[in-house]
Design goal:
66% of the residues lie in helices and 0% in strands. The chain is an all-alpha fold.
Length: 64
């Protein structure tokens, strides 16, 4: 007996892959902003800069 693949299973698989890629990209962007940005991109005032700075300390990333 052959098992037929339904189109909905392929669509579910594609959706899962796209969600996983989106989560990974968001995690990498967050890691960059908190760990390596040093205020280059996040120039929206001192509040965001201090938040990122505290995030670096929280993640044990050296910043100074």
């Amino acid at each position: 007996m052959a098992i037929a693949h339904s189109p909905s299973r392929a669509t579910d698989s594609l959706a899962t892959v796209l969600i996983a890629v989106g989560v990974v990209l968001l995690a990498l962007l967050t890691l960059y902003l908190v760990g390596f940005d040093q205020g280059v991109i996040s120039r929206s005032g001192m509040y965001l800069h201090e938040l990122m700075h505290d995030g670096r300390h929280l993640l044990s990333v050296p910043c100074h």
